[in-house]
Design brief:
By secondary structure, this protein is α/β, with parallel strands linked by helices. It has helices at residues 13-24, 49-52, 94-107, 151-155, 177-183, 222-232, 266-269, 280-297, 301-332, 334-357, 366-376, and strands at residues 2-9, 29-32, 46-48, 63-67, 69-74, 78-83, 89-92, 111-113, 118-124, 127-132, 135-144, 165-175, 188-191, 197-203, 208-214, 238-249, 258-259, 262-264. The chain has eleven helices and 18 strands. Strand 17 and strand 18 (262-264) form a beta hairpin. Helix 1 packs parallel to helix 3. The structure holds flavin-adenine dinucleotide. InterPro entries: FAD/NAD-bd_sf (IPR036188), Geranylgeranyl_Rdtase_fam (IPR011777), Geranylgeranyl_reductase (IPR050407).
């Protein structure tokens, strides 16, 4: 049986980031990953600047294209453009992007065990024994970074009924030269490309990543909507298409983030932004925060749990709760959405771009802000 101080389950951006920071603090860490790396991850691969600027190393080598400008459309009549000096969104393929973070963690001494699925957790003599497809692992702390369907969270006793998962489709499409040239000039979001959601078209090096997300709830017609969106983009010829679907958690868990030395981060905790479904930056941030909490607590389990819980409650939770309220208002009614975008679309796009850039956060007291907005538009 192998022993570690921390076992991180999952090698996505949250897990790899946690492992990187733990190793940097001199903590003996292993990553357990069920796939063989590098692995494909269903994702648009839009990495916003608030995440990129806080990376502890340069990620340029795995960025396909950077966009300093984004285009938001609603139907044929509304179009808003925002522009910044630094890249608002860096487009990546998740296999190479995630692998870069894993490699950086490995350089610092993290052990990576691939093809290693976690099957069960047991508390034995105050330590956690993890049964995996590659044998038993013993550890003091477990970090569940195993994504939206987190089995580790279930094994550790979290309930599934406190969160909302939404379906999202992402197709990797090769199109003809003319369509690629036309569509690779911009990174576009199409509000209402699907009911209560949006479509996106993200150009990669030599293909397009096109997808749709139904933000408020499961919608069985999502495949039809995606087909309609591809038509709407005016794509004449599809040379190849890979269709993928997955879910995104758009509400954080409400039954805590730590139980019995198991810490939740990233999608396992439900840290994707409810309004935009953007999850990479908070996944990476939560990985850093959990590592700092464990390092600061110097082996004291209760202290580590308290530091992590407090920092999440003080920083990420108020933002996520505000974003949840905004998502309800925004996607809840097409009439309201149209009214808001028609009258304040540019202002709204600028505010969202500032959030993507990490230059502002969602307002904490949203109810007060909405009242102010009704008087004179503040957000
Ligand atoms: C269609 C779609 C488009 C998206 N587009 C964007 C976007 O453009 N920008 C953005 O910021 N976010 C986007 N997201 C959200 C983003 O992909 C997630 O928020 C992000 O991947 C969360 O990272 P994570 O590390 O928490 O989990 P993941 O990246 O899901 O990593 C979890 C890892 O755990 C492993 N694992 C799972 N179970 C086990 C087990 N039992 N044992 C061992 N290993 C296990 C998995 O193999 C995986 O490698 C999108 C999501 C979807 C579905």
């Amino acid at each position: 049986m192998k022993n570690y101080q921390v076992a991180v389950v999952g090698s996505g951006p949250s897990g790899a980031s946690a492992a990187f920071h733990l190793a940097k603090a001199g903590i003996k860490t292993v990553i357990l990953e069920k796939e063989i790396l590098p692995r494909y991850k269903v994702c648009g691969g839009g990495f916003v600047y608030r995440g990129r600027k806080n990376m502890p190393f340069d990620v340029s080598e795995v960025v396909d294209i950077e966009f300093n400008k984004i285009d938001v459309y609603m139907g044929d009549d509304l179009h808003f453009v925002t522009e910044r000096e630094n890249p608002i969104v860096s487009l990546v393929m998740r296999d190479t992007f995630d692998q870069l973070i894993v490699n950086k963690a490995k350089e610092l001494g993290v052990e990576i065990i691939e093809d290693c699925k976690v099957k069960s957790l047991n508390k034995v003599d105050g330590l956690v024994e993890i049964e995996t497809t590659q044998g038993l692992i013993k550890t003091q702390f477990v970090i569940a970074a195993d994504g939206v369907y987190s089995q580790v969270a279930k094994m550790a006793g979290w309930k599934e009924d406190t969160r909302t998962l939404i379906p999202a489709l992402e197709y990797e499409i090769e199109v003809n030269q003319a369509d690629f040239e036309r569509l690779s000039k911009e990174i576009r979001f199409d509000i209402d490309a699907i009911p209560a959601g949006y479509g996106w078209c993200f150009p990669k090096k030599n293909h397009l990543s096109i997808g749709v997300g139904a933000i408020l709830k499961d919608d069985k017609k999502i495949k039809e909507y995606c087909a309609d969106y591809i038509k709407f983009l005016g794509i004449e010829e599809i040379l190849s298409i890979e269709k993928h679907g997955y879910q995104i958690p758009v509400t954080p868990r409400l039954d805590g983030f730590v139980k019995e030395n198991v810490f939740l981060i990233g999608d396992a905790a439900g840290f994707a932004d409810p309004l935009t479904a953007e999850g990479i930056s908070n996944a990476i941030l939560s990985g850093k925060l959990v590592a700092e909490a464990i390092a600061q607590a110097k082996g004291d389990e209760e202290k580590a749990a308290k530091i992590y819980t407090d920092i999440i409650e003080d920083t990420l939770m108020p933002e996520l709760l505000t974003s949840m309220k905004l998502a309800k208002v925004f996607y809840g009614s097409k009439i309201v959405r149209k009214f808001l975008l028609k009258n304040y679309g540019q202002h709204f796009s600028e505010a969202m771009t500032d959030i993507f850039m990490g230059e502002r956060t969602y307002p904490k007291d949203i109810n007060k802000k909405i009242k102010e907005k009704l008087k004179g538009l503040v957000f």
